[in-house]
Amino acid sequence: MTAPKEDETSGNVKSYHGTPLMRAEYNALMELEQFIHNPISLVSEWNSNIFGFIAQENHVIALGIPSKELTALPENICNLQNLTRLSFKNNLLSTLPDKFGNLTALIQLDLFRNNLNSLPVSFGNLINLQTLELGENQLTSIPASIGNLHSLVILTLTNNFLSSLPVSFGNLSALREVKLCGNKLLSLPPSIGNLKSLVDLSLHENILSSLPESIGNLKSLQKLELQANSLSSLPDNIVNLQSLHYLYLNENSLSSLPTNIGDLRFLERFDLRSNKLKSLPDSICNIISLRNLNLERNELFSLPINIGNLINLKEIKLGHNILSTLPESFWMLKSLQSLYLEGNAFTSLPEKIENLSTLKWLYLKDNQLNSLPIKTKNALKHLERQGCIIVLNKMEI
Length: 397
What we know:
Layout: H1 6-9, E1 13-16, E2 19-22, H2 23-36, E3 52-56, E4 59-64, E5 85-87, E6 108-110, E7 131-133, E8 154-156, E9 177-179, E10 200-202, E11 223-225, E12 246-248, E13 269-271, E14 292-294, E15 315-317, E16 338-340, E17 361-363, H3 374-385, E18 389-391
Parallel strand pairs: 4-5, 5-6, 6-7, 7-8, 8-9, 9-10, 10-11, 11-12, 12-13, 13-14, 14-15, 15-16, 16-17, 17-18
Antiparallel strand pairs: 1-2, 3-4
């Protein structure tokens, strides 16, 4: 006869609706069940939207209680010390238990869309955490102990009320993706330049008026979102971000760009719309990897003469500036598919426009193109025959 397990003989295992669990973990689920007025289902797979738990060898290893209007958690939830994945997303939690940091086995934690206004100091004990979702809460600060989360790879803090980040933020050396959009950030700590593994940094919709020089140290960064801030200038060493592919600076107050912005040689998408740019540095013509360039709603009256060097450009948006002419080289953009020129001061266009043989969309509304020369009209008709859609004010081509 097989001897019963020691845990069973000592009474340390109890059955939670048919699932054997260690007593402390059984008690935690029973109390949580009382909070939500429902038994918690045993499930075979887990993601943060699934209600239920996964057990292994009498331990709860994954738990999801989404969308149950939870306003608080029982203290003994901190006894689930074998948990690797935990979700309380879309609830009404305003605080976490002080001993929440006891859940040291956690790898993934989702607390999206609650009412959290602070995190316990013990949060820094979650040293195995790799993914942390805290978006859409009420956080006004995060504890300095967060800098202890050296395994953290993905951090989401979108749509909170953060006005600053602790200096220890720069200790999160494994971070690859950080989402901080929709906060109240006034500045970034210089230590952010220590995040050498960072690939994706989202800071849009904050109140940033400047960037630390150390931002140029983020040599692995591929995507930087800074739109809808209050930036009036950029640090010169932003051009050190040699891995950058996507740069969003729209809806700021930039009146100029660093003269050597063209050193960002791998940039593919560059969004500068709704700034105060009157001109562009010549070096921008060196970014031959550019595919999308948005310069709408600035104060541009000219473009660099070598703009035609951007041989891979597929879309350029120049609407709502004060342009009246384009450089000769512009008509050499052989890859261009979409050209937006609406709301400028053009009175005519050269017949060379027909050289843009790959053009599919041409926006010309709200200029002063009242009477086009016959050669220009023929050039536009030639583009139409090639399949280009031309958007004008009411006038015949």
